[in-house]
Amino acid sequence: MEDSPFEKLYQALSRRIELKWLAGHPPKGPAILPKGPSIGLFNPIHPHPIQILDKPILDYLERDEGAGLLEQNPLLVVVADGLQAPSWLRRGAEGQGIALWSSPLPSHQIIDEMRHVLTYQQAETLTIPGVFMEVMGIGVLLTGQSGVGKSELALELINRGQRLIADDATELIRVFPDTLEGRCPPLLKDFLEVRGLGVLNIRAMFGDNAVKPRKYLSLIVHLLPVETSGEPDRLKGSRHHRTLLGVRIPVVNLPVAPGRNLAVLVEGAVRDHLLRMKGYDAAEDFILRQERHLQGRSP
C-alpha cells in the first residue's frame, strides 16, 4: 500500500530534524497536505494546518489544556526544542487523528526544513528525454532525436571534466516560479548508455566527481542532423526558447556533421550563455563595432 502524504513527509524529514512520531494518525488519502504558507507557530487568529509548538506557546496553551489549539483541528503538530508533549496534547492527537511529532531542533529550523521538503514534494514535475549534465557549473540538457549522438557527446564532455546528472530521462521539478531543477530517476542513477559500448557506470569509471545528483536547468542544447538544420544565422546563431512547466529556457540548436567537435561547441555555447546572463551579446558588440567603423569612429 502506498504511503500517506504524512508518512512520506515523515520519512523525508526524520533524519534531517530528528523526528519522533508520538501519537495520532491522520486518515490516508490524496492531497491531504496543504500547499502554500501552511506551516508556522501556533496562531489563535490565523491557524496553520501544520503547527509548531515551542516552550512559550506550550506554556500559553497549558492554561486551558490546549483547547485553543485542538479546536483548530490542525493536520499536524510538531513539538520543538526536545520538549515533552503534555498528556492533553497526546490525548487530543489520538482522539482527533492529529499527527503529533517531536524534534530536538528549534522551531525556526523545523519550519525552514519542512517548507523546503514540502516544496519538493508538492512541486510540478515533468520527465523529459535527453541527457542532463553540469557543464562549466550550469545545468545543460542535451536533446535531439534518437541516434543523433547525445550519449557519445555526454561521454566526451565527461572526459573533459564535466559531470553527468541523468541519461535518457531527466526529471524536472519546478522548485521556484522561474526555476527548474533536474535530477535523475533512481533506477538510472550513474548510468550512461552509449551505442556500441552498452551501459556504462560513470561513477565506477570516472569517480564520484564525474556525477552529480541534481542541478538547476539553465540551457538546452538541441542536436540536429545537418541536413535538417537549415541555414543558421551566421551572426547570431540558431537560438530560441522552450517553455517547460511554465518556465522559459534558452535553446541553442547545434547541427551535427562529421568532423564537428560537438563537445567544444557545447562548452562554447555555455561560455556564451554565461556572458549573455551578464548582459554581454557578442553579435550586438560586433554590429556596434562595424557601425562605428563606417561612421569613421574608433572601434
How would you explain this protein's 3D organization?
It contains nine helices and 16 strands. The protein is of the alpha/beta class and 299 residues long. The chain folds into two domains: 118 residues, HprK N-terminal domain-like (Udp-n-acetylmuramoylalanyl-d-glutamate--2,6- Diaminopimelate Ligase, Chain: A, domain 1, 3-Layer(aba) Sandwich), CATH 3.40.1390.20; 163 residues, P-loop containing nucleotide triphosphate hydrolases (Rossmann fold, 3-Layer(aba) Sandwich), CATH 3.40.50.300. The strands form three sheets. Strands 6, 7, 8, 9, 10, 11, 14, 15 and 16 form a nine-stranded mixed sheet that branches. A five-stranded mixed sheet has the order 1-5-4-3-2. Strands 12-13 form a two-stranded antiparallel ribbon. A hairpin with a 3-residue loop joins strand 12 and strand 13. The longest helix is centred in the middle third of the chain and has 16 residues. The chain is elongated and about 85 Å long. The mean pLDDT is 89.
Query: Low-confidence parts lasting 5 or more residues at pLDDT below 50?
Result: none
Largest sheet composition: 9 strands, mixed
User: Could you tell me the number of beta strands?
Assistant: 16
What is the CATH topology descriptor of the largest domain?
A: Rossmann fold
What percentage of residues falls in helices of 4 or more residues?
25-40%
Supply the CATH superfamily name of the largest domain.
Answer: P-loop containing nucleotide triphosphate hydrolases
User: What is the terminal-to-terminal distance?
Assistant: 70 Å
Give the helix tally: 9
- Could you say what the CATH architecture of the largest domain is? 3-Layer(aba) Sandwich
The Cα radius of gyration reads 26 Å
Q: How much of the sequence is in beta strands? A: 25-35%
